[in-house]
Amino acid sequence: MKLQTKFTFLFIGLVVSMVLITGFINLSWQREAIKEKIRVRDAGIARALGVAATEAILTQDFTKLRNYIDETKKNPGVAYLVVMDTTGRITAHSEHAREGSMLRSLPDIKSTRADRTVEQRYVGEKSEPLYEVALPVNFASQKWGVVRVGFFLDTLNEELAQATRNTTLLMIGAVLSAVMVVVIAGKKITHPDQKLTSTSSADLTRKVRVNSRHEMAEMVHTLKQERGDIHKNRKELEEIKQKLRASMEELKKKVSGLSALNKGSRVLISTLGLEKKLGLIVDIATSLTNAKKGLLILTDEGGKKLHLKASQGGDINMNLHERIARWTITNDKPISIGEGIDGSWLQKLGEKAVTDVIMCAPLKTKNRLLGVMAVESPIFGKNFTEADLDLFSTFADEVALALENASLTESLIESRQSDSFNRMTSIIIHDLKGSISGLSLLLDNIKDNYEDPQFRADLMATIADTIDKTEDLMARLTSRPYLLELRSESLNALLQRVAETLCLRKLPDVVFIEEYDELPKIMIDRKNMERVFRNLILNALEAMPNGGQLTIVTRKTNRPLSTVVQITDTGQGMTKEFIDHSLFKPFRTTKRKGMGLGLFSCKEIVSLHGGKIEVLSEPTRRGTRFTVKLPILAVNGRLRAIRKSLGEYLLETESINKEQLETALKVQVSDERKIGRIMVDMGFVREQEVELALERQQMAERRLCDLLQRMGKE
């Protein structure tokens, strides 16, 4: 294809593209302008109708309103005008025969509910496209009705079609004009370049015949211009290559720094101890900045004294680093010093010269400055770069956050340990208080009733029971907290023993009702569950000081498979606020004497059994009902063998010993981590061994679910 033809097609293509783009933009603008003009006109007609409707409603004279509707309807673009009340009944219509009727179509309902201007398009009864504007008629902040004006869309479509035709003709004329210009001027413009092209594509030694000096001058000018462009492009290409190499090196360095920063972040969020973590922080800082030396200096609580916590790399000038650290803390910004860097601020500190390159960054959090971190002597280059300082400062911020979190975690652990100790002490005091109260009661009656053989027998039995409870309490204190001794027990028999111990059937002012359903034996801790039911029954009796009715009911439920025990009294009820915010919480009680630990310990024991305790009580109605739900678990040896803890599976595989398990369990009392994670962090077991034990435990749990389902069906 000849150069002239290529140039012609290229130029025509560019012109056509520009004309098409300009034409489409102009057409879109014209369409929006036409729509906006018609919308403004239609809204003006609707507002005028709304004013006329408001005046007619206030004066109850609809003559002017109907005259306005008739005049406006003469406009060929107006389809209808309607005035409706708030119920949808037509008050005035351009078709008078429809006045007084109700409109129930979807557009009618939408317009009737209008609280502001509503615009909608829909197809009319005669399948003609309509555009409607609906306005609410408001007066004195009250809606009196709605005015609706419908317009034919044919007018809009005609104007849009005319605008499209005009734009199309304009585009065709522009394209034809461009073609004529190219045909006339193309040959003259491309003639010198054609000869150069033919020469360069064939034998360069061949002579090119020219017709005039002017043509020769143009060819020479074109050749020089092309040669200059080639040299310029070659130079720009070399510059781009150099910049690309520099950018690639910088990118590699940043990727390496970010990778090291990511590894450092994983160390910071690990569960290592604080002392080990400090040494690793300095090691990561020196590796991150390619430095030979590094150190970490922290302040005390008051922020006055500095303490070196970790260092690496041999001899360090601590006097200089302390001065730099104080300057960094005071000014709250990182600093890099070395060859060629202004060190005038060091002269104010008494240092005349710096023998090595140092970079220091503050460890700051939102609340306070924790200290500084510094590195010294870069391995590559004379000084640390700005990129090194930015990366080092970012890592310092993460270190500060990690140190603050570690400090808060230690404070939280200490607080939880203290809280756990206080709770345990309170429960012990509560249990001892009950035993002492029983002994005190016997001591008060011993002088008058000691000669009675029955009293002496009761005295010996009470003392023996108190001793057993105290020994049991000491045994629980010296073993793992909250460790249940599960055995197969009859819940009905346990409740009957508690009732016998408290002499419920002999109380003069209390009507005692017992309803025991047939229940299977379940796995429970007998002593702890006796304690639960004893506390609930005593609370019920204390709520009825003048007597009443006490009811104990047991039953079995299949979904879920569980036993239910209900203890109901007719005493004074509790408020909903007390139940929601105070019940089952320690040190919350309505009694004059008491620590509020009875119901708290009841809920804890029931929860350890996998059950739950519920209460129903209202102060306006006399009576309270406590419901204890316990799951029906192992009756036979298979189920009991299945319900093992993770530690027991690790003991079976000899991954740990009993001493290590007890140590980990003691740590778990005041730690939110799971027992497996605690043993891994303490170095007792590997993660792979924990994963295997967890798989065995999950398989056993699935077997447990299958057995429970079969028991429920039986």
Word description of this protein:
The chain has 19 helices and 17 strands. It is an alpha+beta fold and 714 residues long. The protein folds into 4 domains: 3-159, PAS domain (Beta-Lactamase, 2-Layer Sandwich); 259-412, Beta-Lactamase (2-Layer Sandwich), CATH 3.30.450.40; 479-633, Histidine kinase-like ATPase, C-terminal domain (Heat Shock Protein 90); 638-713, no CATH class. The strands form 4 sheets. The chain has a 5-stranded antiparallel β-sheet, sandwiched between helices. Strands 7-6-10-9-8 form a 5-stranded antiparallel β-sheet, sandwiched between helices. A 5-stranded mixed β-sheet has the order 12-14-15-17-16. β3 (118-123) and β4 form a beta hairpin. The longest helix is centred in the middle third of the chain and has 64 residues, at 386-449. The chain is flat and about 145 Å long. Mean pLDDT is 76; it is low at 478-482, 634-643 and 707-714.
**Level of helix content?**
55-70%
CATH class of the largest domain: Alpha Beta
Relative strand content: 15-25%
Discrete helix count: 19
| Strand order of the biggest β-sheet | 2-1-5-4-3
CATH fold name of the largest domain: Beta-Lactamase
Task: Please give the largest β-sheet.
Answer: 5 strands, antiparallel
Class computed from helices, strands and strand pairing: alpha+beta
What separation lies between the terminal Cα atoms?
93 Å
Q: Give the CATH architecture of the largest domain.
A: 2-Layer Sandwich
Q: Count the strands?
A: 17
Our Rg estimate from Cα atoms comes to 47 Å
The CATH homologous superfamily of the largest domain is called: PAS domain
The 3D shape can be described as flat
Protein name: histidine kinase
GO cellular component, one term: plasma membrane
Catalytic activity: ATP + protein L-histidine = ADP + protein N-phospho-L-histidine
Main location: membrane
